[in-house]
Amino acid sequence: MKLHKNDYVNLVKLFKELFQVSGNKVIVSFLLQILTGFTQGIGLLMLIPMLSIAGVFSNQAKGSEFVEKLIVFLHRAGIPGGIEAILLFYIAIVSLNAWLNSYQSILNAKIQHRFVRFLKNRLYTAIGHSQWLFVSRLRMSDLAHEITSEVQRSGQVIFQILRYTSIIISIVVYVVVAFLLSAKMALLSLIGALVLLAFGIKKNKYAYDLGKSSQRSVKKVYQIVLEHLSGMKIAKSFAQEERYIHEFIEYSEEVEKKKIEYAQLSSRTSLLFSVGTVTLLSIYVYLAIKVAGLHPSTLLVLIYIFSRLLPKVSSLQTSFQSILQSLPAFTSVSQLQSECDRNVENLKRPENQDNADFQSGPVIFSDVSFSYGAEPVIEKLSIQIPSNSILCITGPSGSGKTTLADLLLGLLKPTQGKIFIDDHLLDARILYRWRKSIGYVTQESFLFNDTIRNNLLWTKPGVSEEELWEALKKASADEMVKNFDLGLETVVGDRGAQISGGERQRLALARALVRKPAMLILDEATNALDRQNELKIIEALERIKGTTTMVIISHSHEVHRIADQVIHLENGGISHV
Ligand SMILES: Nc1ncnc2c1ncn2[C@@H]1O[C@H](COP(=O)(O)OP(=O)(O)O)[C@@H](O)[C@H]1O
Ligand SMILES: [Mg+2]
User: Fold this and answer.
1) Which of 46, 137, 182, 331 is the least buried, fewest Cβ under 10 Å from its Cβ?
2) Is 80 exceeded by the pLDDT of residue 194?
3) Angle at the Cα of 254 (from 248 to 255), degrees rounded to 5?
4) Using the 8-state DSSP alphabet, how is residue 239 labeled?
5) 357, 400, 399, 356: which is closest to 519 by C-alpha?
6) Secondary structure element (H or E) that encloses residue 420, with its range
7) Percent above pLDDT 90 for the chain
8) pLDDT value of position 313
């Protein structure tokens, strides 16, 4: 069995994290497993006095020294008063064993699900807290896949490991009891078990590979679904939906194939073990009778033990395969987790959210440079944006206008130079507060599939009705909302698809204004609009001029007219217009 070194490392990591999350429960589970094994052993040994009373063990029977000792011990302890007492004790011990078993299953389920919740919450938090540049480069469908399916499969690893250890304990108990009855035969049963396990080893790598390849197929299905669903309109418009549907069907088949292959692997392993078991059992009986010359009574109990033991060995194998098949899921979850951790934003989030706002103040870029790769997008840029003034940015596509806005939002960190907000250096200490004070409108504004009211309240919960209407009025959107039949209760559809582009942009502006931002950033917010809607928004901006600092990326002459300064961005540098 060739596990990669990486997988061992991850297995160790899994245990470490499991112990961190529910160390106590895991220890209790192991103790319960031992206790369960112990009661199981006693239950097994109880067969002997039963058989003894039934007359299988005669006084002369020299089956085993241990059996004789046991019978004497039970006599002294006063247990075999009669068959009734023995049977009652047997019922009690087997019931106790069953109760321990069920308690342990519940405990294991708790351990598994708590671990899944822990992984899921930690990963989701890490994704939410990681730097924009890092997350923006990931595939959203991969993230969805990791958070849902892979985390769940990681929980399966835990479940199977707990099962695995309890099977091992069970096997140990059987072997020990067998030893007490006949050392020779016990050794033989142990060798038999190992031979069976050796048969299974070749299958293990296969199980691991299946786990990996099925992971790839499931991931692909997620990609197709997410891309298709979020681009449904464009897919339909280009008559490309069949492509998604075909791909979806193709990869669903792939997933099905892998699942069936795994089912085949599991059941063939079981088959191999069943045949192996019965063969070994027969050899065992043959040797016991012909070679060891055991007493029939001892033989009876040994056969019973052996017939129980071998299926356990089979379970041990399938359980191990299952661990191997699910392990790649944990590996990829922890990989993503550590990547997110490495790219964490580490913001200082104030406890009291109400006082988190910045007041309007001057913003200064001092020799700021930024590059995504080798080529700088922005080079040694210095600008001053006085408090409550309007800065307009123009420049050809790809000149770095959005990058500049992202720097201002703190979504990107300057590779060189500094940005000051109201005399504070823009860094992790003030970033969260700063973003809480920003109103941001982009070309394709994202509205939530909810009512207009809830969309507006999203930036500043608890705002009064008057303030909502005030923001709508400032954004030239009040008449429009009044004209909707349901007014503020109108639902806008996924990403605002049920209202027009102009309506959407004005609502996005109103949403930005609800929080009375210290700075309003508009990134080509009117670009996709017709002239009339564009003018409505520019009118709105003129109305709020002087009450907040504005950075407007736009090519419109009307915006240039209301701006206090206009800069033209090109080849990393700027020229004032
Ligand atoms: N996440 C990114 N990774 C790498 N390069 C990027 C990224 N975003 C933008 N760029 C590149 O940076 C340059 C400026 O992009 P951008 O600021 O979006 O321009 P604008 O908004 O002026 O059209 C472009 O050449 C673009 O290809
Ligand atoms: Mg842009």
Assistant:
1) 137
2) yes
3) 90
4) T
5) 357
6) strand 416-421
7) 43
8) 84
What is the C-alpha to C-alpha distance for residues 267 and 279, in angstroms, rounded to an integer?
18
> Contact, 60 vs 310, CB < 8 A?
no
Report which residue type is found at 526: T
SS3 565: strand
Lowest mean pLDDT among 4-8, 362-366, 413-417, 553-557: 4-8
At 55-104, the pLDDT tens digits run 665 544 445 566 667 767 766 766 555 677 778 888 999 999 999 999 99
Higher pLDDT among residues 181 and 523, named by residue: 523
Count of other CB atoms within 10 angstroms of residue 364: 18
Average pLDDT over residues 491-505: 81
C-beta of residue 523 within 8 angstroms of C-beta of residue 402: yes
Structure tokens at 533: 């809607």
Which amino acid makes up residue 144? Answer: A
| Residue of 319, 324, 316 lying closest to 205 (CA atoms) | 324
**Between the CA atoms of 226, 230, 234 and 238, what dihedral angle is there, to the nearest 10 degrees?**
20
Substitution site in 137, 372, 394 for ligand 1 pocket (most atoms within 8 Å of beta carbon): 372
- CA of 569, closest atom in ligand 1: 22
Q: Which ligand places an atom closest to the C-alpha of 522?
A: 2
For every residue of 319-383, DSSP letters joined together read: HHHHHHHHHHHHHHHHHHHHHHHHTB------S-GGG-PPPP--EEEEEEEEESSSSEEEEEEEE
What pLDDT, on the 0 to 100 scale, is given for residue 550? 95
Q: Which helix (H) or strand (E) holds 551?
A: strand 549-553
By C-alpha distance, which of 369, 361, 348 is closest to 423?
A: 361
Is the model's pLDDT at 575 over the cut of 90? Answer: no
Using CB distances shorter than 6 Å, the residues near ligand 1 are 136, 372, 377, 395, 397-403
Read off the pLDDT of each residue in 242-256 and give the average, rounded to a whole number: 92
- Say how many Å lie between the CA of residue 161 and the centre of ligand 2: 51
For residue range 513-526, list pLDDT tens digits in order: 998 899 999 999 88
Q: Using most ligand atoms within 8 A of CB, pick from 136, 394, 402 the residue to mutate for ligand 1.
A: 402
3-class DSSP state for residue 52? helix
What is the phi-psi region of residue 571: left when phi exceeds 0, alpha when psi lies from -120 to 50, beta otherwise? left
Domains annotated for the chain, with CATH where assigned, are 5-342 (1.20.1560.10), 354-576 (3.40.50.300)
- Packed helices 296-342 and 183-230: angle between N→C axes, nearest 10 degrees: 30
The pLDDT, as a whole number, for residue 116 is 95
Q: Take atom 14 of ligand 1 and give the residue whose Cα is closest.
A: 400
Q: What confidence score (pLDDT) does residue 89 get?
A: 83
Tell me how far the alpha carbon of residue 231 lies from the centroid of ligand 2, in angstroms.
20
Residue 78: predicted pLDDT: 63
Among protein residues, the one whose CA lies closest to atom 13 of ligand 1:
398
